[in-house]
């Protein structure tokens, strides 16, 4: 707790030092380091150059968790920024903080900016809407999991890129038989194998429309479909047809080194794979489990959105609204999408990228958008909204690791994950009462 | 001091004292900075932690409920939390033992080095300047199952290293990383202690025919026991409190909780999970444990120390 206090003091100090300009300043805290950080700076600088009244100041605050913690600590010290980037699993926490947030749709209307929700990709904004349809935060960087494959290895093994899970099993076996040390691997396993597997097959992850309709929700991902798929993957692990390579993106080297022929993870790894892989690679849609559904529904996003925080001057919010309009314009979005590999948030930006010939030059880069807009999202596939979800994902990671190590069966692992997850949901429900 | 006219001088000093130092606030003023630092940086945050541990609160502090001991109750019904006690004790003991014994061996050799002693010393002290997270990152690269150099060599012996899946290997890795980081500190103290042992004692032992190893165990080791005791306390506190950065960088507590030690759970629940009440309750428990442990060390171990 001492750390937290220190943190409050230092953030307060940092803010105090940067408010001595004549223009109205808008503080934007974000979690984009490295090259993406430079792109964020460019967006802000370009906006600042378009007008003289407002100045958007982007500040890098560390990774997603650190940025969110920093903004919350600053809010408690009444020194918070106008705009903060929060990852998708923080949505329930932000949404529950009624007095702290300023819903983006309301902000745009209050500031008199024209704002048409129908311009936005439904699968992207549905994740951040209230059950009544109000948009709470502005999508910024979104991606979705896809199936990456080593085209050379698949060809050598004589198999086509997989479309169903039966294909995946056959392809993985063929790859291993052909001398590869691993057939399939994946990262961000809760997101890919539980959340997206469920959405893709139109299965709920929890009750109450995946938490959208209330905090009194309970997990249901220990259902037969998820369990049976996970059990089959664990079975594949016995023959190295599946290899577990760690949490998040830790398994990326397994794919780019040419050890694993197939890898399921975010479409936003395009840049890294292009840079590291010394073979022809491709991406295709997530595999369909034909025992569960006849056709895929749509996949759900991951990534982050921009939340406006309450408690600032109207004049500042006016500038913020103008900036958000600029940010979601087709030009800026198409540029951001093509540079980063994140999906565009508006139809206009996708169409612009298409007309610029981006998808023709970079085959496969439109898979993510196709997956997201495959069908109109259902309550099972528009996203998830569970409190304490950062810890719940840890719980799922832990239980899946026990499964991959052979310490638990798929049913045991998922039952325990649901039980522990529900305890965390109840704690969250209490805390926001 | 012990000169003639002692009694007179003492009287004079006593008079001087009365003349110059009769204000009772002076001693308080002199210790005030220390007290202030303790109050601000220890007592106040500790009190805050105790208070916070009785609350269930949302991250933004918008809704707060005073719940007495419910956070503690929740922890003690959580099997995973209870399991992490045993794990933490094993981890701390292993870290303290490995880092202290390696430091002792290194210091024993460095003490005998004649040429290039400064170079050896500097190199051995270096790791202490590395932040825990960076130390962790270093070990992560060396032991990465796909890219790391050590799994590559282990593969020649037919040993399959994958700490992403194997809990025992993951534990070994965080212990090594945490211990390695602390060796430099221990080394520094051991070397200083060894160099303060009068040469004549060692030489007397040598004349009596004791070989270096014998001299070490019968002379050096007992003579540096105060340092060993001091380091034991410091290393225990280090292993209990300061290792979350290493765990965070190396394993994030995984696989399947195999490396979730108490302090990592405090950090993770509080700063990542934003469950402030639960995290505060854990830090209070940790605080009590360390106080208790230090008392035990002082009461029972210190008796064996020869000053």
Please give the structural blueprint.
The complex is a heterodimer of chains A (433) and B (307).
Chain A lengths: L1 H15 L7 E7 L3 H17 L3 E7 L3 H13 L6 E5 L3 H6 L4 E2 L1 H7 L11 H4 L12 E6 L1 E6 H7 L7 H13 L4 E5 L2 H12 L6 H4 L13 H15 L13 H5 L3 E7 L3 H7 L4 E4 L17 E8 L4 H14 L2 H11 L6 H9 L2 H4 L5 H6 L16 H16 L5 H22 L2
Parallel strand pairs in A: 1-2, 1-3, 7-8
Antiparallel strand pairs in A: 3-10, 4-10, 5-10, 6-8, 6-9
Chain B lengths: L5 H15 L4 H28 L2 E3 L6 E3 L3 H7 L2 H34 L4 H9 L6 H12 L5 H8 L10 H29 L3 H9 L4 H12 L1 H17 L2 H7 L11 H11 L3 H26 L6
Antiparallel strand pairs in B: 1-2
Q: How far is it from the N-terminal to the C-terminal residue of chain B, by CA?
A: 25 Å
Rg for CA atoms of chain A:
22 Å
Report the CATH C-level class of the largest domain in chain A.
Answer: Alpha Beta
Instruction: Specify the CATH architecture of the largest domain in chain B.
Output: Orthogonal Bundle
Specify the biggest β-sheet of chain A: 6 strands, mixed
Strand arrangement across the biggest beta sheet of chain B: 1-2
Percent strand of chain A: 5-15%
Mean pLDDT of chain B: 86
Please indicate the percent range of residues of chain B in DSSP E strands (runs of 2 or more). Answer: under 5%
Relative helix content of chain A: 40-55%
- Unreliable runs of chain A: 1-9, 11-21
Number of strands of chain A: 10
Structure commentary:
The complex is a heterodimer of chains A (433) and B (307). Chain A has 433 residues and is an alpha/beta fold. Chain A is built from 20 helices and 10 strands. Chain A has helices spanning 2-16, 34-50, 64-76, 91-96, 104-110, 122-125, 151-157, 165-177, 189-200, 207-210, 224-238, 252-256, 270-276, 314-327, 330-340, 347-355, 358-361, 367-372, 389-404, 410-431, and strands spanning 24-30, 54-60, 83-87, 101-102, 138-143, 145-150, 182-186, 260-266, 281-284, 302-309. In chain A, strands 1, 2, 3, 4, 5 and 10 form a 6-stranded mixed β-sheet that branches. In chain A, strand 1, helix 2 and strand 2 form a beta-alpha-beta unit. In chain B, 73% of the residues lie in helices and 2% in strands. Chain B is built from 14 helices and 2 strands; from the N terminus they run ααββαααααααααααα. Chain B has a two-stranded antiparallel sheet. In chain B, a hairpin with a 6-residue loop joins strand 1 and strand 2 (64-66). Chain A binds chain B through residues 1-5, 65, 68-69, 72, 75-76, 93, 96-100, 244-247, 250, 253-254, 257, 259, 388, 390-391, 394, 397-399, 401-402, 404-405, 407, 420, 427, 430-433, and chain B through 41, 45, 48-49, 52, 56-63, 65, 74, 80, 144-147, 162, 164-167, 252-257, 268-278, 280, 283. Chain A: Residues 1-22 form the signal peptide. Chain A: The complex is composed of two ATP-binding proteins (UgpC), two transmembrane proteins (UgpA and UgpE) and a solute-binding protein (UgpB). Chain A: Keywords: Periplasm, Signal, Transport.
């Amino acid at each position: 707790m001492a750390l937290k206090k220190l943190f409050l003091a230092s953030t307060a100090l940092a803010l105090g030092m940067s408010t001595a300009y004549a223009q109205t300043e808008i503080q934007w805290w974000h979690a984009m380091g490295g090259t993406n950080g430079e792109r964020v700076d460019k967006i802000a600088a370009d906006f600042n150059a378009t007008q003289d009244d407002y100045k958007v100041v982007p500040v890098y605050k560390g990774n997603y968790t650190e940025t969110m913690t920093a903004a919350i600590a600053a809010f408690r010290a009444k020194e918070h920024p106008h705009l903060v980037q929060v990852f998708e699993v923080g949505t329930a926490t932000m949404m529950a903080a009624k007095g702290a947030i300023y819903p983006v749709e309301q902000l745009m209307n209050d500031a008199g900016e024209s704002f048409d929700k129908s311009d936005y990709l439904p699968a992207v904004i549905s994740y951040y809407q209230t059950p009544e349809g109000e948009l709470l935060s502005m999508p910024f960087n979104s991606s979705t999991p896809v199936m990456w494959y080593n085209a050379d290895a698949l060809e050598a093994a004589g198999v086509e890129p997989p479309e169903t899970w039966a294909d995946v099993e056959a392809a993985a076996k063929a790859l291993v038989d052909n001398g590869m040390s691993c057939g399939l691997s994946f990262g961000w396993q809760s997101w890919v194998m539980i959340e997206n597997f469920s959405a893709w097959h139109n299965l709920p992850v929890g009750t109450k429309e995946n938490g959208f309709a209330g905090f009194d929700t309970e997990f249901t991902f220990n259902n037969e479909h998820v369990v049976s798929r996970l059990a089959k993957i664990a079975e594949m692990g016995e023959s190295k047809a599946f290899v577990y390579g760690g949490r998040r993106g830790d398994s990326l080297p397994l794919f780019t080194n040419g050890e694993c022929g197939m890898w399921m993870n975010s479409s936003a790894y395009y840049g890294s794979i292009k840079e590291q892989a010394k073979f022809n690679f491709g991406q295709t849609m997530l595999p369909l489990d034909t025992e569960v559904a006849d056709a895929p529904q749509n996949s759900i996003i991951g990534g982050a959105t921009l939340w406006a925080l309450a408690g600032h001057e109207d004049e500042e919010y006016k500038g913020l609204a103008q900036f958000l309009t600029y940010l979601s314009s087709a030009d800026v979005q198409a540029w951001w999408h093509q540079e980063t590999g994140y999906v565009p948030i508006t139809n206009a930006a996708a169409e612009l990228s298409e007309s610029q010939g981006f998808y023709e030059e970079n085959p496969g880069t439109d898979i993510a958008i196709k997956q997201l807009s495959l069908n109109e999202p259902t309550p099972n596939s528009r996203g998830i909204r569970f409190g304490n979800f950062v810890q719940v994902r840890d719980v799922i990671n832990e239980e899946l690791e026990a499964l991959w190590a052979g310490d638990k069966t798929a049913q045991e692992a998922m039952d325990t994950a649901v039980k522990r997850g529900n305890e965390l949901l109840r704690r969250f429900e209490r805390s926001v009462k | 001091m012990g000169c003639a006219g002692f009694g007179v001088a003492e009287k004079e000093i006593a008079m001087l004292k009365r003349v110059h130092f009769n204000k009772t606030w002076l001693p308080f003023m002199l210790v005030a900075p220390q007290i202030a630092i303790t109050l601000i940086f220890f007592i106040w945050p500790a009190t805050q932690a105790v208070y916070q541990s009785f609350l269930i609160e949302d991250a933004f502090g918008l809704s707060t409920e005073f719940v007495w001991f419910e956070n503690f109750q929740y922890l003690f019904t959580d099997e995973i939390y209870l399991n992490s006690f045993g794990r933490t004790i094993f981890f701390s003991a292993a870290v303290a033992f490995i880092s202290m014994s390696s430091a002792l061996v290194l210091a024993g050799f460095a003490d005998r080095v004649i040429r290039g002693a400064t170079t050896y010393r500097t190199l051995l002290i270096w790791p202490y300047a590395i932040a825990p997270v960076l130390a962790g990152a270093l070990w992560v690269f060396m032991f990465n199952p796909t890219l790391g150099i050590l799994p590559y060599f282990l593969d020649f012996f037919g040993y399959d290293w994958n700490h992403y899946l194997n809990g025992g290997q993951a534990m070994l890795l965080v212990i090594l990383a945490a211990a390695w980081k602390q060796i430099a500190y221990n080394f520094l103290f051991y070397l200083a202690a060894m160099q303060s042992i009068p040469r004549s004692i060692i030489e007397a032992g040598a004349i009596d025919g004791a070989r270096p190893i014998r001299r070490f165990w019968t002379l050096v080791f007992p003579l540096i026991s105060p340092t060993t005791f001091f380091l034991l306390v410091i290393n225990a506190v280090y292993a209990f409190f300061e290792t979350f950065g290493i765990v965070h960088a190396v394993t994030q507590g995984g696989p399947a909780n195999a490396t979730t030690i108490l302090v990592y759970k405090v950090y993770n629940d509080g700063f990542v999970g934003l469950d402030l009440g639960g995290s505060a309750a854990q830090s209070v428990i940790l605080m009590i444990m360390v106080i208790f442990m230090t008392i035990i060390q002082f009461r029972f171990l210190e008796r064996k120390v020869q000053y």
